[in-house]
Specification:
Blueprint (H helix, E strand, L loop, with lengths): L4 E5 L4 H12 L3 E6 L18 E5 L14 E4 L6 H6 L1 H22 L2 E7 L26 H21 L3 E6 L2 E2 L10 H10 L4 E4 L5 E3 L1 E2 H13 L6 E3 L4 E3 H12 L5 E4 L14 H7 L7 H15 L5
Parallel strand pairs: 1-2, 1-4, 2-3, 4-5, 5-6, 6-11, 7-10, 8-13
Antiparallel strand pairs: 9-12
Helix pairs in contact: 1-6, 3-4, 5-7, 5-9, 7-9
The protein binds uridine-5'-diphosphate.
Amino acid sequence: MTNKTILISGCCGFIGSHLCDHYLKKKFNVIGIDNLLTGSLSNISHLEGNKNFRFFELDVCHKIKIDSKIDYILHFASTASPIDYLKFPIKTLQIGSVGTENILKLAIKNDASVLLASTSEVYGDPLQHPQKESYFGNVNPIGPRGVYDEAKRYLEAMTMAYHNKRKLNTKIVRIFNTYGPRMRIDDGRAIPTFINQALNNKDLTVFGNGNQTRSFCYIDDTVEGISKLLDCKYNYPVNIGNPVEFTILELTEKIKKLTDSESKIIYKKLPENDPKVRRPNIELAKNILKWEPKVKLNDGLLKTINHYQNLYKFNK
Ligand code: UDP
């Protein structure tokens, strides 16, 4: 039994809402905040009436006023999918900069430990493969993805400055592609898009030749990694992701098979600066957190497909 209070920003988003569930199960008092820009109240509707959960509609870009004493903060508020940050480029930069500093100030005020969500995008279109935490990355600051990549790089720099100068207990997680129930079906990312297309027997839209790679981590594994990182004493960035790498074409084949779909593949223009490869080196997480992902892509995809089938009516 714990009486500890944890504040989770971005609680109505995909990862944020799963973190709320995780910490409520661990008997924490959870305060969720979200401005509902890209998150949805439906992701936390099952928590209505839970006396250990409180929700506030707040924007981290404005001063955050919370009356209770906070012991831990998880900062997950951000646009996260390429179509979202292309739609809200200035806001994305503000969330990473102003929003991050507001969260760090809240942590100072409460003497709270704080874990901030960074991303594999800090490595950009990487020239090192797989990507280790020591790699500085290859990011085009003025390319279309720059607004997100640089926002998160700034988040890391600001976090380390508060750690070094103000002695704040900070953690940074670099999250690689994560998937699972509660991703918005229209958020433009590969897995929800292909599942939606496959279940409607529509063409699967592969960008470029489909030989670009990604490594997909199921949400339960990601949450477990984040939770262990919050508990450990390490203050530098840690990769959390699944090191099993697939091409996007391989991913479409799997989804077609699992949904028993007749969809065809069509090829569309590759977005500018789309990383050609991505795979985490997770040796650090294995060593210091004793963590590694357990869920295989097929199993995670099946759970995700089931989730969407329960939510929506598809054509097949
Ligand atoms: N992708 C694709 N078709 C889609 C959506 C995505 O081929 O309809 C590709 C995209 O170009 C990228 C990969 O799938 O190479 C993963 O894209 P996603 O948006 O899921 O995440 P990213 O890793 O690029 O942030």
